[in-house]
Design a protein that fits this description.
The complex is a heterodimer of chains A (277) and B (434). Chain A is mainly α. Among the domains of chain A are: 42-62 and 136-182, no CATH class; 186-277. Chain A is 29% helix and 7% strand. Chain A has a three-stranded antiparallel beta sheet. Chain B is built from four helices and 30 strands. The chains are: A mainly alpha (277), B mainly beta (434). Chains A and B meet through helix 5, strand 3 and helix 6 of A and helix 1, strand 1, helix 4 and strand 25 of B. Strand 3 of chain A pairs parallel with strand 1 (24-28) of chain B.
Chain lengths: 277, 434
């Protein structure tokens, strides 16, 4: 009896020891997992301030297709925009086959270019070195694009998320109002191409919890009559209501903390006039 | 108890009204131009060998995807497998895969080669049914039922009339350039049910649909004499409306088929005439030196757009249906031709030639808002889908081949319409009658 108990204890101990060796020793025999290099994306977290001060992007978030003037467009292919030499984040380029044909791009004077700054003219150098020539070209391109970037903020078609002109002497910032206006951009599909799209302004009355979750969203009662009688308006209204309910916009995220308590009653005006142009 | 509930509801409504009076206001002026993700589930039920759930659903999904306004989600991504097409879906499962709308439905054989097809359209975010319909028909009509379902979904989600239950007639071309064979052909707007209507013995041009869709009008040249033919698509019967010497395009009907416009060359000038199809009386509408041609009615029949070189270059003009109040509406350089008034009434499509290139464009009836939608070595002959949203035209390549393409009025969604061979002169039918 004593001998049997001793054998049992010894067997149990050996089994436990084997398990521990397997648990801690075997993984060490496996090859190391490859280190995954994280993709580095540079972002600017804009502080909230009284006034927005947003650096304009090379392209607006959604470039409205501008109707050409009555002057004839030139049949030239779209010119590529000058690329800035510094690695700054650019908005995503549209997929080539989805890009609407716009013969006016690059040809029509959408952005009236400012007169070129008259700089003290340097003596033209002998470009003996191809590399020096390239560097010079890049410098000129950088100066030109910086200059254009400054002046583009005031152009209607180049508005991004803020209507305020950019002042590079001030730090980047976003106002509470602009932050709220921008919150629904990724979720709303305006009625592009609809008949009389510019008159399809939809007003949604929404209620949110203090942490930004949607309690209820409904059409402004004053627009209910039009909803019942106008199929275009109904589609636009449904699209606006869906925008408030989509997972990307419910709950509302990345808004300034001071804004959330004010969202209990929110009136959202979905206005397609800019994008309908 | 009821009074108490009423008072509570009243109090909440009052509180909400008071709250919204001081509401924070957001102004959203930008969004994304992306197709609406929609889940098209397979209709449940047995159906029969031809009219079954899978085939109907796949045609619906293909129609919506082709419009460029919808993105059908792959069925492999569905979390909920619908087993009862009449039941309410589990909306969180559909929101999980980002579906904004879900289509379910049933197909049931009801005997005698007939089927009953139902569909329901659900708003996955609002968690409510927003459309639904039932169709009873012969099994062989399953494709049309699928197109009708797609039209209903399209209309409910966009507000626009659909255009999937339509056909396109065009001139099918074959052979070498010096001995081209041209035959009249017709197909569904998705390329199915393709048929040739003539044998290629005579040259055929510019087919047009009559407003009732059962007849087409086209030009045919026999012994170099242009004749206008009217062909009944159901019976196949064809009649000649007579010789119209001096005519180079087939006439265009007005919206109710009671009148038609034509341009006839006589005495060194080409003028626009209107024929009353009841009395067969002809009325001359223009009388200017030069060439007035390609007339097209507005949808209400009160105005006519046409192109004319009376000003020295080929430009677009609009006049009353009586021929008065002629106003030029195009002012760009280059030449404008083949104007066609949109069925929606808000746009005029045209071909423009400028700088050695061809364009298809649209403008408002007063000439403002000109936008060029596509450009190529040769594009011409726009024709509107019945909802005034999509334009079909032909595009030629330098080697001589010519194919049909369609484009949305936003300029997006340029697509080739697949035809068996070369194709030109397309005409889009109105919505087919039930």
């Amino acid at each position: 009896m004593f001998f049997e108990q001793r054998s049992l204890k010894l067997s149990a101990g050996l089994h436990i020891g084997l398990l521990l060796i397997a648990a801690f020793g075997l993984p060490a025999l496996l090859p190391d997992a490859p280190e995954i290099q994280p993709t580095v994306i540079t972002v600017d977290i804009l502080p909230i301030a009284e006034r927005s001060n947003v650096r304009p992007s090379d392209k607006p978030i959604q470039k409205a297709q501008k109707a050409p003037s009555k002057t004839p467009p030139k049949p030239v292919p779209p010119k590529p925009k000058p690329a800035a030499p510094k690695p700054q984040p650019k908005p995503p380029e549209p997929v080539e086959e989805e890009k609407p044909f716009d013969p006016n791009e690059g040809a029509e004077p959408q952005k009236p270019k400012p007169p070129k700054e008259v700089k003290p003219k340097t003596e033209p150098k002998q470009e003996t070195d191809e590399f020096d020539k390239l560097l010079n070209d890049l410098e000129k391109t950088a100066e030109k694009s910086e200059k254009e970037a400054k002046d583009q903020t005031t152009q209607e078609e180049n508005r991004t998320q803020s209507n305020a002109p950019f002042d590079e002497t001030l730090p980047l910032a976003l106002s509470e109002q602009d932050a709220l206006n921008s919150a629904f951009i990724p979720c709303w599909s305006p009625p592009a191409g609809a008949k009389d799209a510019a008159n399809l302004i939809v007003v949604v009355l929404a209620q949110y919890t203090p942490d930004g979750r949607l309690i209820d969203a409904k059409l402004d009662p004053k627009q209910q009559g039009r909803y019942n009688s106008d199929s275009f308006f109904r589609a636009a209204a449904d699209s606006a209501l869906r925008a408030t309910r989509m997972p990307n916009c419910n709950p509302l995220k990345n808004l300034p903390a001071s804004l959330y308590p004010k969202l209990k009653y929110t009136k959202i005006n979905f206005d397609p006039r800019v994008m309908a142009q | 108890m009821r009074a108490r509930h009423f008072l509570l509801a009243f109090a909440f409504t009052l509180a909400a009204k008071t709250g919204f009076a001081q509401a924070v206001e957001a102004n959203v002026t930008q969004g994304t131009r992306s197709p609406i993700p929609i889940a098209i589930t397979t209709l449940t039920g047995a159906g029969d060998a031809t009219a079954n759930g899978a085939s109907i659903s796949s045609v619906v999904a293909a129609d919506l995807e082709r419009s460029g306004l919808f993105r059908p989600i792959a069925q492999a991504a569905f979390i909920e497998q619908i087993s009862n097409g009449d039941a309410t879906p589990r909306f969180p499962d559909w929101r999980q895969i980002n579906a904004q709308a879900v289509m379910t439905g049933t197909v049931t054989s009801i005997g005698g080669d007939r089927v009953r097809v139902t569909f329901r359209l659900w708003d996955a975010l609002g968690e409510t049914q927003i459309a639904g319909k039932e169709f009873n028909t012969y099994s062989r009509n399953w494709r049309r039922i699928a197109h009708l379902i797609a039209d209903e979904i399209y209309k409910r989600m966009t507000g626009e009339l659909g255009y999937f239950d339509t056909r396109i007639v065009y001139v099918a071309e074959s052979g070498i350039q010096t001995k081209r064979v041209k035959r009249l052909a017709i197909m569904d707007q998705d390329g199915e049910n393709h048929k040739y209507l003539t044998d290629g013995q005579q040259l055929v041009l510019t087919p047009r649909f009559s407003p009732n869709t059962q007849q087409i009008l086209y030009m045919s040249y026999a012994n170099n004499a242009p004749r206008v033919f009217l062909r009944d698509l159901q019976t196949g019967r064809e009649e000649s409306l007579g010789k119209f010497n001096g005519m180079s395009f087939a006439p265009r009907f007005n919206h109710d088929g009671s009148r038609m416009l034509m341009s006839i060359a006589q005495g060194g000038q080409t003028s626009i005439y209107e024929m009353d199809l009841r009395s067969r009386s002809m009325k001359r509408l223009t009388n200017s030196p030069g060439i007035d041609t390609s007339p097209s009615y507005s949808p209400d029949g009160r105005r006519i757009v046409f192109n004319s070189d009376r000003g020295g270059s080929q430009q677009l003009y609009v006049m009353d249906s009586s021929g008065g109040s002629v106003q030029r509406i195009s002012f760009g350089s280059g030449n404008y031709a083949t104007p066609v008034w949109s069925p929606r009434g808000d746009k005029i499509a045209f071909t423009k030639m400028s700088g050695g290139a061809f364009y298809i464009g649209i403008m408002n009836p007063d000439g403002s808002g000109e936008r060029l939608l596509t450009q190529s070595w040769l594009v011409e002959g726009p024709s509107w889908a019945p909802n005034g949203r999509v334009i079909v035209f032909n595009r030629g390549a330098p080697g001589g081949s010519t194919r049909l393409y369609s484009v949305d009025i936003t300029g997006f969604n340029l697509r080739e319409l697949v035809t068996p061979g070369d194709a030109s002169d397309p005409a889009w039918s109105p919505l087919l009658q039930m």
